Amino acid sequence: MTKTLLALAMAAVATSALAYPDKPVTLVVPFAAGGPTDKVARDLAEVLRKGLNNQTVIIENVGGAGGTLGAAKVAKAAPDGYTLLLHHIGMATSPALYRKMPYDTMNDFEFIGMVNEVPMTLIGRSTLPANNYAELVKWLEANKGKINMANAGLGAASHLCGLLFQQALKIDMTTVPYKGTAPAMTDLLGGQVDIMCDQTTNTTTQIEAGKVKAFAVSTPKRLTTPALAKLPTLDESGLKGFNVSIWHGMYAPKGTPKAIVDQVNAAMKAALKDPEFIKRQEALGAVVVTDSRVNGPEHKKFVEAEINKWGPAIKAAGQYAD
Ligand code: ASP
């Protein structure tokens, strides 16, 4: 290619990047609609569009296999900025859980940035004959072999939290996987499963309405959200060192032009400063990220550190899927 042709081609790429987006953008959520990841994505999508030429951000729920199906779909999508991913800690836990991953976490994505951190709550069906954590443990001890614990599949946050909880208590439970914790919550409300560990973004309203029993939070400190403030931590309840706080981040397929990644990052940063978004997240117990992890390169380093942190713990628990 001559120098002139090359300059023309580069100018065309720059112009098309500047015109981005000129049609709706799809944000893939790798879990079922109505669940905690979906709720964060839908709240974010509302404000994200302001920084994306006011184009609609369409949520596509691709649940299954603990979030790996949806993430794989984005890893293989055209790198043109029209398919993005909102995922959670599963980005970092799945590589330790699956013998064969359908994508390479660190190399198949452009990292856009981190969105928020979300604590988890240990909850149970309203008909459980336990009204606090100590009573729950007694009930679990007495019902060994009969307990059903719901989760969103291997690699999901609910799986990680449930796995560490069972390990710490030394009680094996039958895990019941769903495509997300929205359908798991439906079954918990219906009494088909006994307990679940799930993000506050899904559990707060059910706890407030008294539709589920809440026993503890997964973070080392108690929470300040009114509906959750009275809950003890698992750490203070006897599971010393228990600490599972999950996070969400945004990603684009590898090869998405830098100008587009930067534009989505700027739109995301503006969204994270939006008072309405912050208020909605805080009401559900989530903390919007304000530090340097909102930048792609820092978030990438953070995800790598998370892979190194959780991998050994998960492998020690002997959990694998093909
Ligand atoms: N709460 C789910 C999880 O356990 C994800 C979801 O359904 O959004 O990871």
Structural class: alpha/beta
Instruction: Please provide the count of β strands.
Output: 10
- Rg, Cα atoms, Å: 20 Å
Uncertain spans: 6-17
User: How many domains comprise the coordinates?
Assistant: 2
By CATH, the topology of the largest domain is D-Maltodextrin-Binding Protein, domain 2
Present as ligands are: aspartic acid
Q: What profile does the largest beta sheet have?
A: 10 strands, mixed
Strand content: 15-25%
The fourth-level CATH homologous superfamily of the largest domain is Bordetella uptake gene, domain 1
Total helical elements: 11
CATH class of the largest domain: Alpha Beta
Short description:
41% of the residues lie in helices and 20% in strands. By secondary structure, the protein is α/β, with parallel strands linked by helices.
